[in-house]
Request: fold
Amino acid sequence: MGSLSIEKVEHLLWLGRYVERSYTTLRFILSTYDAALDSLEGNWKGQLEELGFDASNDDPLSFFNNCLFDLSNASSLKYSMNAAYDNAVLLRDVIGTESIAYVQMAADAVDAAEVSDAPLLDLQLVLDYIMAFKGCVDDYIADDSARNIIKSGISVERLDLYTRLSFRLDRLPKETHRLAGRIDRIGIPYNKDAFKRVIACVFDQGFPENMTYERLGDLLADIAGIF
Amino acid sequence: MYENLVRHTPKINQQLARYGVKFGIYKDNVFSERLFPFDAVPRIISAEAWDVLERGLIQRVDALNAYLRDLYGDKQIIADGVVPQDFAFASSGYLPQCEGIVPPKGIYSHISGIDLVEGDDGEWYVLEDNLRIPSGASYPLVARNLCRRCDAETFRGSAIRDNRDYGERLRAVMDNVNCGGINVVLTPGRFNAAYFEHSYLAEHAGAVLAEPSELFVDNETLYFRDATANRKVGAVYRRLSDEYLDPLCFLPESLIGVPNIMSAYRAGNVAIVNAPGNGAADDKGIYYFVPKMVEYYLGEKPLLKNASTYLPFYDDDMAYVMDNADTLVIKDVAEAGGYGVVFGSTLAPEKLEELKALIRREPRRFIAQEVIDFLCLPTYIGGEMVPRKADLRAFVLSGEKTSVWPSGLTRYSREEGSSVVNSSQGGGFKDTWVLCR
Amino acid sequence: MRILSFSFETTLQFSDPVSEHSFVLRCLPKSCASQTVLDSQIIITPHTTVAAQVDGFGNLLQVGRIAEPHSEFNFISSGMVVVDTENCSAEPAHPMFLRDSSFAATSGAIRTFAADALRVACNAPAWDKAMKLSHALYEHLSYKPGATDVSTTAAEAFELGCGVCQDYAHILIAACRAEGICARYVNGLIVGEGATHAWVEVHDGDHWRGIDPTHDRAVTDEYIALSRGRDFSDCAIESGVFRGGAQQSQNVIVHVVDQASRL
Reply:
């Protein structure tokens, strides 16, 4: 192997991003749901509105159901998981059938949970398969460049989601650190200036307390500009 | 012997789903993917039977390759009157654009899928040769892996020949004709019915999976667009059909081809696996002549039988067809796939007369065959063993030598009594065990 | 016998720049029994590497690719050819030239037309039959540029009752094949100034001989053949595939001179 077209590079990057988006979105939905159980007063939708879910939907069951399974919403778990699969299936010669199997199973598990009478319980399987996929990426994918692109995708997605949701901002430096160690090994060009601005921002002494809404927006734009 | 396998059929199918063993279908213009049902009761071929099959298949494919070399070269077999020109050039798969091109090492059909059935009389009959882009080798590969895990008793120290080296065999076939550069599997893309297979075979042959837009031709050389540098391609196992391969040579409206790939091929800078133009040797009209090709090119008696076939083109055959049309299956040579196939026994008397009149008017357009009663295999459906008709696609690989993959794709029909085994019609597949003793 | 010098220039103009332009040209004559190429050259702009190849029909190809964006594609071929139409060598006809092809398939109307035209000549030799068909077609069809395009089939043009040289050639080929005469399509140039031309070759049992149905005459030493095929789609003079959704316009200048006329 060892030959990646621009198309494959894109698919690897987006595979990483969508897998991570599925994982983080699902965990975020689960914790928001959990908090809402105790209080349906006030802002029980939490930061989920930031992801573009229907703010006017006041029925909690239907709201959470949409967050999880509404294919017409690009932020839903199902949408991300399907998109992850759509990228994975184009990469069999690069990442291998064994790795794709976990993405396939995670996508199948989302479908199964959708028709289950205890979807949130069953969705644990999705988290399990995604974790297994991440392990597979580390252990099984022989092509260094392919592995690093997926992991860069994962890192970028994390930076993006954490920033978007103002969630675990204290983890951004660590994630940025990881990405810095990897990004020069993927063998494709990226926007160095944008990445340097991200580094400057998250390693600032005052971070994250100094982040205004506006500065978060700038950071988000720089993260999006890396690739 | 395979009770465990049968008992665990649902589990094996579950694991097949995990690996995405699917084929794509279009229904009402919507693309969807379906799982390919696996039946754990295998087709078992004894070592003795395989020995004959193997030699017969090698002989047949060697003769077909010789025919293609001759057809696009000297045309000696036509000059000698063994294959009438009315049949040789009437085939829609004959491509004059390929005249005079000699593929690397003279191999036209590198991967041949020969469809056979076992008759009630215990004889094997060839039903069809597929020399273009036969598919189906990937499914048994995945299934075998799972079956071995499921049933140690059956496989331990068993006489079942391992079939999981297909990827290496494919790679050897590509390496043999590689003109310098990487090996590529060219797929029309994600929405092709056999996309799973394309990607699976690329993975297992260690080839790069490419869509047409990832390839280009410059200066008589085929390149893969790597993100960092363009890489020369020495052999391309293409899984898109001839007419779409090169818009500057075949259908100009093809949007999925690689422009000028034929110029790289003409110049001898890339091997195209299988060669364009092979359709001239695997259509219904040519089938009749394949045993004659074996005698003509190899000077050997054919080891494999065709289904008894009659060409109304010849007077004796015309007389036979007119007398027996009600028991024969009549095939329109011009139609592809399952179209234009009529069983005389199913026609009302006046329709049969109409067909006979048509055959008399256009004798070259039709062939007629005896209906073969083919053997049923036990199949586990709905919790019980039931008989189902099944065929076998054997894969013959022509590399440095011609060899037969000791396995194959056994497809069975969904309905009892039906002989339609196509996966698109709801049929499933079985593993094919070739015994080594 | 005549010695002809030719120059043939084609310019394609694109409304927006195109890139990754792969092309095949059949714009240079090749030597055969009835024509000897003394000298020929080609210049392509923008400059690129061009490979000379021969296709399955025996035509000379110029194959290449221009990766960079460009708004104009130009090729000029020129040279000198000795034409000796009488000297056609005996060769068998490939049976494909007797079968329908995509642009030159017979239709019921063409079959009837051919049978009517040959009613009093059913035992004539193939060549005489073909000439008769050409006469009948010349009477039936009117020359009318713009009524048809490069994708018009023989049956369509016959139905319209008009067309250009390509349509005349396709219908004559279809009519000949309907009558069991092998016929093929020829692209080329004729003495004078103007555009490229198309005509027909029929097989008289021993040789391929040219008929120009647009002028209703046997081909003379004033014709330079560039490419041959079952019909137009096998042997286009210029074909290309590129990236970019541009409008295309084409300008062709042909100049063929009989050297004797200069003396």
Residues 143-227 of chain A form a domain with the Four Helix Bundle (Hemerythrin (Met), subunit A) fold (CATH 1.20.120). Chain A has eleven helices and no strands. The two ends of chain A are 24 Å apart (CA to CA).
